[in-house]
Amino acid sequence: MKRFLVTGGAGFIGSAVVRHLVGDLGHQVCVLDKLTYAGNLENLEPIARSARFHFARLDICDVAAVRALFAEFQPEVVMHLAAESHVDRSIDGPAAFIQTNVVGTFHLLDVAHDYWQSLPPDGRAGFRFHHVSTDEVFGSLHDEGLFSETSPYQPNSPYSASKAASDHLVRAWNHTYGLPAVASNCSNNYGPYHFPEKLIPLIILNGLEGKPLPIYGQGDNIRDWLYVEDHARALVLVAEQGRVGETYNIGGSSERTNLQVVEAVCDLVDEMAPDAAIGPRRELIRFVADRPGHDKRYAIDAGKIKRELGFTPRESFETGLRKTVRWYLDNEAWWRRLRTSVYRGERLGHVA
Ligand code: NAD
């Protein structure tokens, strides 16, 4: 059993990581999370009563408090997922993205480095800092090719630029100060507990309620999709077994156009929750003005993590999507609270 400090552990992916670490693997976990609009303690409900689970409501920019938490919890592994994560929000208000994703990552690295230096030699040798990032840092692909770990950084949105900056900081803290860091860049995630502003939950929930299903542009932008519980398993492998100083790309080898994704969700919702008053959900699809600077295609070469760490996804896009629609049908109380209070669905924004 190890002690993991997980920043952003109340968010979509962070909570899947924590449920896996505590629930499946029996590790001790302390979640450090500010609980922004995207953080939700209900995401941790399945493991919340475990004696191995701890929670601290903190901003990663609050250096003194984060330092005190490191001293108290004495983590052996830090997994850094706290971030502002929604591209549309970064276009409307980039400042929070620079503050949390760039300045916050700097503060966390600084605290982690001081803490690591204070450890005895065997503690220093075993310590790992894992930075969790996105494939969006590589920019946009055209019809051919895949992002590899050596693809040049070409971020296009304020979100991806802030994540690219944080990736570079992590690299520098490893290279210059010797902090034992690893990093990973992953494609689009989907699955249970996904905040309803993102494409797949938005389409499921609007489809259930008979509301319009917005798609940017012509719906021909292509993303690679990975089921969030597969990502969580991959992240723990990287954190525990990844080589220090390396980065690992993580993907699902499941490229789909946004229109294909939306149509697949429509068909599943029709099958699992038919509603004669609403009719076929595909008829609710509406093409809306494209997102400014919308990247055309992301796709991942996930060969390195497969070769070095033996990771392959368990879910295909079809099986993962079916599980996801089932989860939203079975967990109405979870999403209805978010839909009626925090997020009212006025914005049409979607896609991480
Ligand atoms: P999310 O928005 O669901 O969760 C982010 C969490 O971070 C929330 O719990 C929020 O409260 C917390 N947080 C935000 N600012 C904070 C701060 N200043 N201090 C402490 N906590 C703070 O995001 P997610 O989709 O779970 O993404 C997690 C990480 O994975 C992010 O770093 C993101 O860039 C990366 N990522 C996401 C995807 C995706 O498809 N969602 C894909 C690849 C990588």
Give the cofactors and ligands: nicotinamide-adenine-dinucleotide
> What value does the average pLDDT take?
95
Question: Which CATH architecture of the domain at 3-194 and 225-253 and 296-314?
Answer: 3-Layer(aba) Sandwich
**The level-1 CATH class of the domain at 3-194 and 225-253 and 296-314:** Alpha Beta
Q: What's the story with the biggest beta sheet? A: 7 strands, parallel
Produce a short descriptive summary.
The protein is of the alpha/beta class.
Structure description:
The longest helix has 24 residues, at 95-118. The strands form 3 sheets. A 7-stranded parallel beta sheet has the order 3-2-1-4-5-6-10, with helices on both faces. It has helices spanning 12-24, 63-73, 87-92, 95-118, 121-126, 158-177, 199-209, 228-241, 258-272, 303-309, 317-330, 332-342; strands at 3-7, 28-33, 53-57, 77-80, 128-134, 181-186, 188-190, 213-216, 222-227, 247-250, 255-257, 285-288. α6 links the parallel β5 (128-134) and β6 (181-186). It is an alpha/beta fold and 352 residues long. Residues 343-352 have low confidence and may be disordered. Nicotinamide-adenine-dinucleotide (NAD) is lined by residues 7-8, 10-14, 33-36, 38-39, 59-61, 81-85, 100, 104, 132-134, 163, 186, 188-189, 195, 352.
Please supply descriptive tags for the structure shown above.
binds nicotinamide-adenine-dinucleotide; 352 residues; 43% helix; seven-stranded parallel beta sheet; globular; 12 helices; alpha/beta; Rossmann fold
